[in-house]
Amino acid sequence: MDLPKHKLIQDIITRWNSSFEMLERFLEQQPAIMATLMSKDLRKGVTDVGTLSESDIANMDDIVQLMGPVKMATTVMCEEDQPTLSVIAPLQAKLLKHLQPCEDDSTLVAEIKRVMASDLSTRYRGTQDALNIASAGSSSTKLSGFNEETTAPNESPPCKKKALDALFGDSFTQRERKSTSETARAEVLKYRAKDALPLTENAMKWWRSQEKELPVLSTLAKRYLCIPGTSVPAERVFSTAGDIVNAQRSVLQPDHVDQLIFLKKNL
Predict the structure, then answer these.
(1) pLDDT tens digit string along 69-90?
(2) In which domain, by residue range, is 85 found?
(3) Residue at 100 is within a domain
């Protein structure tokens, strides 16, 4: 039938997106599946072959279209190449917009959207400020609502040295001194005027190149962009440990286990 030569996929409760991938693959191979179910060889000795109705297929197609962006979002969050906290707020906003109800939605799709939007809208309560600051600190995901007032470091009172000023004040040209808050505000304006970084680029490397021009913001960005966006990397460390410490290697010393896991995850 000129279809891709793919196997069918089963969903696994511990794997993100596996149910979506199962439905997507079924729709791709549907003509071949239906033709196989009609085969006389398959039907020999079988009184009833379970099939899906047209309504089932329509629902499946709706779910795949609805969940496509969700799969893309979770795939992005599973990346380990660079910290991903800065991506959470934009992804949340994008998904909430995608989950807004439409007049053409079926009853099933409308209910799925309602449940998912309700859960996602309250998912990050209490941490939204940190997520917004992290997003503003990533040059590829600048937020228009970035508030320079809240992200500027607290201003320290200037140290007054009256005696030194009295002795040497006439010998030195006085520079105009900016407060920490003014310096930070100027950096924010300069930062927002820069071109956005392509999504494929590493934000941490970009901030390293901006340390001299944007010293205050680069320090702030490093504090937020180093935070992992999910627990996926930690879960994968446990899986790696399970592959290393097995019945055949039960006498490994703890220090050696640490070294092997470190080498594996940093190869």
Answers:
(1) 999 888 888 876 666 788 888 8
(2) 18-44+52-121
(3) yes
